[in-house]
Amino acid sequence: MKAFVVDKYQKKGALRLANMPEPDVRDEDILVRIHATGVNLLDSKVRDGEFKLLLPYRPPFVLGHDVAGTVVKVGSRAQRFKVGDEIYARPRDHRVGTFAEFIAVNEADVAPKPKNLSMEEAASIPLVALTAWQALVEVAKVKPGQKVFIQAGSGGVGTFAIQLAKHLGATVATTTSATNTDLVRSLGADVVIDYKTQDFQKVLSGYDLVLNSQDAKTLDKSLRVLKPGGQLISISGPPDPAFAKELGLNPFLKLVLRVISRSVRKKAKKLGVRYSFLFMRAEGQQLSQITSLIESGVIRPVVDKVFPFEKAGEALAYVETGRAKGKVVITVGQ
């Protein structure tokens, strides 16, 4: 099969189109012919080696964390899907690789593709949807009437998280550029802050939750818009000791994460708020619940551009500019 591989960890490293063996199908796997794949900043970070302590992929490896496609083979113990089913998924860590024609995925990571979406639209959903779901529903347990601040509202996670937070009954604030104000308002944002001309710390206060996706300076300011007892969930780091424990990391890595998160944890404690790091995980059952929200019209995908398979490198470079509205997708095959 054809696939885009990373030959070595390097900043802005080139993707190489290569012939790779078709994936082995384990007993609880399904083999998927990939029709489309989403592109995420996570792909750049994995390629650059930013997560190699936590996700030690051995080059050459295939990038890609979102898939929409058709089941072409079923493992001996897989029972939830049959050949011909249309599915979408975020394959679990250490088994990613959707910049390819085929992928073998554990059936527990998979959900039926929403019937009202194209393959390209469906491929834009899994990673960002599961990130938003696990932050807002699973960890924060957002309730009606709460105030939620979602950074970068026009980005991949932001466009989904705004819609989900509104569905949960929250008042939603977000940051974006003036050109994207109409977009984030159409998704449900109540308070829109132009990050180029306004300081959100001067506009927002008394918030129950912040979903942080930006840099350390923004993280520091975000702690200060929370009310006492409020919570900040960061998807951009730094990882904390609770995350290290959850992953079962070795004592050295646990110590490293304790040290790099010490400053933010100390500031949060002083302000009487909670800090936690979220690295989303594959979860087919949650994705099935998300399918229901999409099919009922509660949430819609936001897709900026669709690139052909041979231009995967250009698609990744476009995502790295930070200018994409919603998601960028690669069409792999039909």
Class computed from helices, strands and strand pairing: alpha/beta
Sketch the major β-sheet: 7 strands, mixed
Element-by-element helix/strand order? EEEHEEEEEHHEHEHEHEHEHHHEHEHE
Please give the count of helices.
12
Beta content comes to 25-35%
Q: Can you put this structure into words, describing what you see?
A:
The protein is built from twelve helices and 16 strands. The chain has 334 residues and is α/β, with parallel strands linked by helices. The strands form three sheets. Strands 3, 5, 6, 7, 8, 15 and 16 form a seven-stranded mixed sheet that branches. Helix 3 (126-139) packs across helix 4. The radius of gyration is 19 Å and the shape is globular. The two termini are 14 Å apart. The relative contact order is 0.16.
